[in-house]
Design a protein that fits this description.
By secondary structure, this protein is α/β, with parallel strands linked by helices. The chain has a 5-stranded mixed β-sheet, sandwiched between helices. The chain is 49% helix and 13% strand.
Length: 218
């Protein structure tokens, strides 16, 4: 609430290095700016309300979008891994893995291999935020998979991924699920042996129960 009064969200305040002790001075600066562009008290009140309501909306919307996005990413991971013959119930993969001593951040999915687990991340980020994919590449272990939307041709993410042994797979590619199957097959994961066509992927997704695309905490 205090952040909204100075026209900021928590993330923006953190990025700007604004501490709690700075709030009063920032608030005074904001009010001074409002007073400098308004002619009377009524206009000042309306402008201040627009600022506060706008910031509150960004905070609430951002939180909701993050929650929905996370649910969608986990659903995509489950669908892709299920389509290639893996089964969550028998321990072939696990979803929404919490951070621990080995991995500092939550992971969308981990696939069991003969030598441990391979991480799978889903990044539904467009060309305007391609640095997010680069950040994901930097956090992935060798043989990890990142299912992504699209990044600019000049992005260094592909080169970095090649050096680190991370597989980038673009979801807009009609054969993205087949790419996942091929990659995991090379790691001796028991996926189906024959290639999977886009039409098969579509049908298998449609055959999955609706509960497979829901998270219990949403």
């Amino acid at each position: 609430m205090r952040l909204w009064l100075i026209g900021l969200t928590k993330k923006t305040a953190t990025n700007l290095g604004i501490r709690v002790s700075d709030y009063p001075s920032v608030f005074n600066d904001v009010m001074a700016d409002i007073e400098s562009v308004t002619a009377d008290g009524q206009e000042r009140r309306e402008l201040a309300l627009l600022l506060w309501c706008g910031t509150a909306t960004l905070t609430i919307r951002g939180s909701q979008k993050s929650k929905i996005g996370k649910s969608l990413e986990v659903s995509i991971a489950r669908a892709a891994l299920t389509c290639i013959g893996l089964r969550e119930e028998r321990g072939d993969f696990r979803l929404n893995v919490e951070a621990d001593e080995e991995v500092a951040r939550e992971t969308d999915a981990e696939v069991k291999t003969p030598r441990g687990f391979v991480r799978v991340e889903v990044g539904l980020i467009g060309v305007g935020n391609s640095e997010v994919i680069g950040d994901k590449v930097g956090r992935m272990d060798r043989n990890g998979i990142i299912l992504m939307d699209m990044i600019p041709a000049k992005s260094t993410a592909y080169r970095t991924a090649e050096i680190r042994g991370v597989r980038l797979i673009q979801l807009r590619n009609n054969h993205s699920v087949e790419e996942v199957r091929q990659h995991l097959s090379g790691l001796h994961v028991p996926v189906q042996e024959e290639p999977i066509a886009p039409a098969q992927v579509e049908q298998r997704v449609l055959d999955m129960p609706l509960s497979a695309f829901k998270r219990g905490d949403l």
